[in-house]
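ESCALATION

Customer reports they have been waiting on this structure for their group meeting. Please prioritize. Original submission:
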Amino acid sequence: MFIERGGRRIHLSASTVQPDAVWVTQPARNLTPDLEDHPPAIGFLIRERDTQFGGPFDEVFRSEGAMVIPTPIRAPNANAYAERVIETVRAECLDPTLSLGRRHLDRMLRTYVEHAKRGRPHRALARATPVANDEAPIAVRPRDVRRQDLLGGLIYEYPGLAA
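Update from on-call: job pushed to the front of the queue and completed.
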């Protein structure tokens, strides 16, 4: 997963059992066209010092003009944004559910990330969501509000003004 620091927007890639340097480079290549759609351009990338993040992975971001910064050894606070997002995803999505396979895991994570982008406000963003809702709020009566279940009822959303 890739996280934009400024807007807390999460970009998710598919999961795998045994990631290697070739596998992690492909999601990086897939990410760069997505980031061209909205500013700002990639200024820097903070990444772990794992062996799978090697030359080809770094080169994808360097070719976009980004500076690649490996985190110091045994310093989880150096990448605090990613650590916080991973902790939240584990606590709110992965721990209370049982994954039935890689496809099921990918679907659960996509659903949760979409909820985090559009339906889950963030304190650091003045209680806004990472992806702004362009629609004007619709006035609804309380009895017209319908609960929308995500992840089999693990997460509830209430569309309209009730959110």
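Sent to customer with the following note: Residues 102-118 form the longest helix (17 residues).
Escalation resolved.
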